[in-house]
TrEMBL record:
The lineage of its organism: Bacteria, Pseudomonadati, Pseudomonadota, Gammaproteobacteria, Alteromonadales. It comes from the Bacteria. Residues 136-207 form the T6SS immunity protein Tdi1 C-terminal domain. This is DUF1851 domain-containing protein. Residues 11-110 form the GAD-related domain. InterPro entries: GAD-rel (IPR014983), T6SS_Tdi1_C (IPR015002).
Length: 225
């Protein structure tokens, strides 16, 4: 008999902020089994219950890591990051930010493609080393805030709702893209946003070669530059 899913306090808090997905993209059983022992068991349980679906009306998505293999290679393949650990894309935002999880280091990197940044984070190596990877992944979700995944426009407002109203809600393989990207001089205005295929667009952005690896201090410096 299939084990009944029991929600934890962290994911319950996540759902209070993002709500349940309006549509569920079922996660295939063979994909769940493939990542046993590679990703936290609790994440696989989320997949089983919620699928690869969008929360917050498409602001934040659970992803099938297999779908992002080529994208991840395009962004990390020429860095030494791939020599440190095996990373998977476990989630993404409406604007194409990719949240990576490593087998040894957990959530060590975030890719911000519009800026061309690969952002290094503290990671979860200590938790994983002592078998507490499920606690780490639960915290990953509970720490998410809708405003931190949204983007400020030039007038000081937030763009996600404007994008959704003008361009309609996203599907699993779509994102809101800035054309041109920020690293090419683009500005965060609704007139510069298009709805595009996420895989094609992220590959194109990676091909420009404008990639920077930033730690938190480097990111702060960018904010004040």
């Amino acid at each position: 008999m299939t084990k009944q899913f029991e929600i934890d306090e962290d994911f319950e808090w996540f759902l209070e902020k993002f709500e349940e997905p309006s549509e569920k993209n079922q996660a295939p059983v063979e994909i769940i089994k493939k990542f046993e022992g590679k990703l936290p068991t609790r994440l696989l349980e989320y997949w089983s219950e919620y699928g690869f679906s969008g929360f917050g009306e498409g602001l934040f998505w659970l992803t099938n890591p297999d779908d992002y293999d080529d994208t991840l290679d395009a962004w990390l393949g020429d860095t030494d990051i791939v020599e440190q650990d095996t990373y998977y894309v476990i989630a993404r935002s409406a604007f194409g930010e990719l949240f990576l999880w490593g087998e040894k280091f957990g959530h060590k990197y975030l890719i911000d493609p519009s800026h061309g940044w690969i952002i290094e984070k503290e990671g979860n190596a200590e938790d994983i080393a002592v078998g507490e990877e499920n606690d780490a992944i639960q915290f990953f979700f509970s720490a998410k805030r809708p405003t931190s995944l949204d983007i400020d426009d030039t007038s000081g407002g937030l763009l996600f709702e404007k994008c959704k109203l003008r361009l309609s809600q996203l599907k699993y393989n779509e994102m809101y893209a800035f054309e041109p990207a920020f690293f090419l001089g683009g500005q965060p205005t609704i007139d510069n946003v298009s709805k595009v295929n996420i895989f094609a667009h992220l590959s194109v952005l990676a091909s420009f070669g404008q990639k920077e690896i930033l730690d938190q201090q480097g990111l702060i410096a960018k904010a004040y530059s």
